[in-house]
Amino acid sequence: MRQLFVSTTAILLLAATASVAQETSLVGFPTSADNTQYTRQHVIEVDDVPGHQIRVFAIRRTFPKDPPIIGGLALKEQLSRGLTDYISNSGTGNFYGTYVLENGDKFFTRSSLVAHKAGAGLSSITVGRITGGTGKFATMQGEVRTLVTSDQAAGINEGFTTIEYVLNPETDAKASRAPAAGQR
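Above: the chain sequence. Below: its structure as tokens.
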């Protein structure tokens, strides 16, 4: 019985140590309409009900002043490419994101959105997963969330983005299990 207790305790402590070692970082930042550009947009009218459109789009955001810092590096630009299916500015969509850091490293996301009509435009909420990256961000894992107001006709798209992430989950977990110098 005592051996079972000791084994169970050791397993729980290892699991707790591994999860603590994976330091989760959180960054939130506004996305300004002034630094956002629709680089491509193609709208197709669907004739089943009035106001039904499917749309393929590409958006480029830049961060010339006070860029958000992710993994110790400044975010240079954010690229989004996606597809929406709206009836009178309400509906759903999916898109892919590329975040480019100041040293050229990148990380990638895949997100889904839900939008509703708001004035002449719309308001949307998106949630997505970080799917991979390059360089320092190759093993990055996490989630991205955004709140956006948009008016496609006017070319306006602005909001707030939150990214919760772990940069090196495998490396961090292994480091927490490795004995410290002199403890071998």
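The chain has one domain: 23-175.
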